[in-house]
Amino acid sequence: MRPGHCQANNRVIGSHVKPYYEDVKRIHKPKNIINDVRKEFGVNISYLKAWRSREKALDMIRGGAEESFQLLPSYLYMLNIKNSGTIAEIESNNESIFKYLFIAISARLAEFRSQMRPVIAVDACFLKGKYLGSLFVATSKDGNNNVYPIAWGVGDSENNASWEWFFTKLGSAIGQNILDLVFVFDRHKSISKAVLTIFPNALHVHCIYHIGQNVKAKFKHENVHCLFYKAAKAYRESEFHELFNELERYDPAVGTYLREVGFSCWARAYSDGKRFDIMTTNIAKCLNAALADVVNCLFNV
Predict the structure, then answer these.
(1) pTM metric for this prediction
(2) Which tens digit of pLDDT belongs to each residue from 209-218?
(3) Residue ranges of the domains in the chain?
């Protein structure tokens, strides 16, 4: 037994901890591997060795990241073959390196066009791992208020080019002439620009949770934060102004900020279209949380 424990190498430990990573939702961190090896074998290993062992275990289960990227075209081809009408596209740069991915399943598209309220929440989250990137989602609600995924995609980051590409593909998937179409998002400038470019006739509104958090962070008034939510959800203009005037009495600066955002972007009473009860992007964030681990596995990151 030497301090380096040469027989307890990355592959041996990786083989031992591999079952922990077969369930993509299970979290087993390097510090957990250190404790496992110490308890089961009486051997102390470094954090670096535990991390490398984790990577070996993931490679044994899912293969390497580079191999997965090479398999993407075949995967999308079979997805199109097995689901007629599905839009599954990948784009590479001039050096044939992965750039963007978009997937919209045909059954989801057909039901959205025929049965769903035309209100779409869009959001993105960061992917973790070797190649990073961002996961984009577009989702709605069904008649039972359940989260209804419409499309998702992957890009390098939340920038103008990637969001415009995503919305271009979304426009091809759902059509750009849907009556009373509404997009809900978190005031991200790239999203706003892309929606205005690809869906100029749709209503563009903001997530009241995002605005509420800004109000809470900027002005530090608990009462103002509560009044904002009540005003945002009010149905009648008279009720809205009663609450908004009370809000301004606490701090006129809050009223100035919310006027600059625009009443029609966040207040239900002044909405120019039908956003129904979809006042936040929470449904998109829920979908992001559900898909992130799966997409990370797909790309082995």
Answers:
(1) 0.79
(2) 999 999 988 8
(3) 10-62, 66-181+285-298, 208-270
